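Known limitations

Structure tokens in this collection are predictions and should be treated as such. Users comparing against experimental data should check residue numbering before alignment. To illustrate the layout, the record for SufE family protein is reproduced below. The input appears on top and the generated tokens appear beneath it.
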Amino acid sequence: MDMPGKLAAIVDEFASAPRDVVLEMLLEFADAVRPLPASFDGHEGMEQVPECQTPFFLKAVVTPTDQVELHFDCPPEAPTTRAFAGILSEGLEGATAAEVLAVPTDLYHRMGLATAISPLRVRGGTAVLTRLQRQVREAASAQDA
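Generated tokens:
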């Protein structure tokens, strides 16, 4: 299974963009992170991603209709890290558990970000995706049980 169409379009857009524009494009996604619902006050029920240099929390919920709801929290002072969350939020909106699990773990390399940002930041973004997919896998398995 391929990654969802919205995410594939974002990946293609980044991969074909000139290097000098990639960082600007990335930062535009920092604003795509929705505010957390009140139920996550104080990051209740969220998982921290320690590989990120800044405090980054996430929670993936698989609904009874098999759609994945994503919740991220990262400070505005960390726009590059917030951009990872924005890309995932926008690209995976409305995706099923299977579609989220089909996202390749080298997503950020495919986007060409390894040439625009530090390897440490790419590793943080990859950790976010890996933890997100683990949460989706666990939630989907719990529903199947």
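For this record: The domain at 5-140 is CATH 3.90.1010.10 (Sufe protein. Chain: A). The longest strand covers residues 57-62. Please report discrepancies through the issue tracker.
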